[in-house]
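Many introductory courses stop at the sequence. We go one step further.
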Amino acid sequence: MRKPPIQAWKALWQWIRYRRVPLSVTFVLTNRCNQTCSYCDIRTDRSMEMSTDAWIAALQEFHSLGLVRASFSGGEVLLRADLSRILSEARSLGMTTSINTNGSLLADRWPEIAPWLDMLVLSLDGPREVHDARCGRRGSFDRVLEAIRLARRSGVPVATIFVADRDNLATLPFVMEMGAREGFFVYVQPRHASCFSVDQGLGDLDSDFLQHLGHMLERARRLGLPIGASRSFVATLLDPEQVPSCRACAAGNFFATVLPDGELIPCHLTRREHPRDLVAQGGVEKAWRSLAHPWTGRGCLIAPYQELNRMFHLDPEAIRSALMRLAGRRR
């Protein structure tokens, strides 16, 4: 049974004591992946992986610090045979849960993970031919569609992440219209040059590209299409000079990431610049207390991080957007 009031009190106590609370944590259970997406270099990092018991212990320790939302990802998170056990532990602790997956392995695992899942997040980068080419695997699009429909029949909310670059931007309207038909929200984020280094930026994606993307999202909102982006995130795309720097980000204060080997970092993009403590060695509380805020860095446009950062800065548009997504409503 969930206990939100208890978690709220724990979070408030941590805030009073330390002015820092890990309200939302992404647990990267593995960097292994069964696809070779053209824009992703996570699979190139062959970190060791913590055991089931170590992940469960970490969840329990984070719970004591006030953790409310636990997101599980990879690599391909469904390559972990123990995913359902880890998810069930998170839910038993009262956490809201989600997984990020490419969907290729979901159908066979759905009965065991569905009872513990609050939201399903899938990668979807365009229509069949575009998505399959970017993933390096034929049939990927069809498996994503199967996963969407499976989750929706089960009553589990679905969101997709569209990684935008010059090769697939023209197909974004197709994905948003598909979201309207199939009942899922579409997050859009510009491709970053590396998943592990904020300093590498967006590569060849310039201000004109970002502004064009912002205008596409504005038009989609006017048409009532189910975009996940808040108005404030779209406004940043339209004026890229306003991208918050790492110094202004809530990463490391209110949300963080745990890598497969247990390394606690503010976010993926700070991995190479700011190595951190291993939660499996000194414990979660020690790692959290010693986690240094990323004071340098130009900032990013990773959609989930941007939305979390805005919510924790009490941006009303980001909060409104998140609440409406949870309610399954469009703006």
